[in-house]
Amino acid sequence: QLHRRGFRCLHGVDGSAGMLERARSTGLYRELRRCVLGREPLPAPAEHYDAVTLVGALGEGQVPCTALPELLRVTKPGGFLCLTTRSNPSNLRYKAELEAALEGLEERGAWQKVLAQEVECWERATSQEESTQGTGYISGVVYIYQKCPVPSLEEG
Q1: How many domains does the chain have?
Q2: What are 80-134's pLDDT values in tens digits?
Q3: What is the Cα gyration radius of the chain?
Q4: Which residues form a coiled coil (predicted)?
Q5: What is the pLDDT of residues 21-76, one digit of tens each?
């Protein structure tokens, strides 16, 4: 969808060589690098990207909430971060931790929330217990934040 809307300079990272190969086969990415987010720094300089997305990886047993400052580090001041997580029962504890971390960064002035939107049919459920009201899907949330600009020296 991003490519169809004119975004052509896409970089991707993943901890899995297989997923990177799959991404490479699409021909959509200008650069792909291996990185285990939360265990090592992103392979990019500070304030490098206009927008950073992390979709499908913020969840129990995947990317830890402690990786959020690293995402902010590589985002330009005024740039956007689009993050997602699942709202299924097995991810509720993680989701609560994530939302506390998101709010904490906002309270410290690192970024400002633009949007937090629930999506009912986010992805197919892998079990009936995870399914939202028997729909066969689980719900999720899309969060969009804007990184706060660095205050000028005159502002104090």
Answers
A1: 2
A2: 999 999 999 899 999 999 999 999 999 999 999 999 999 999 999 888 888 877 7
A3: 17
A4: none
A5: 999 999 999 999 999 999 999 999 999 999 999 998 999 999 999 999 999 999 99
24 with 85, same domain? no
For the chain, what is the total number of helices (H) and then of strands (E)?
Answer: 3, 6
Q: How many CB atoms lie within 10 A of CB 93?
A: 10
Domain range for 12 is 1-34
Tell the residue number behind the tokens 């690192």, with chain if given: 110
Q: Which two tokens stand for residue 65?
A: 């909430």
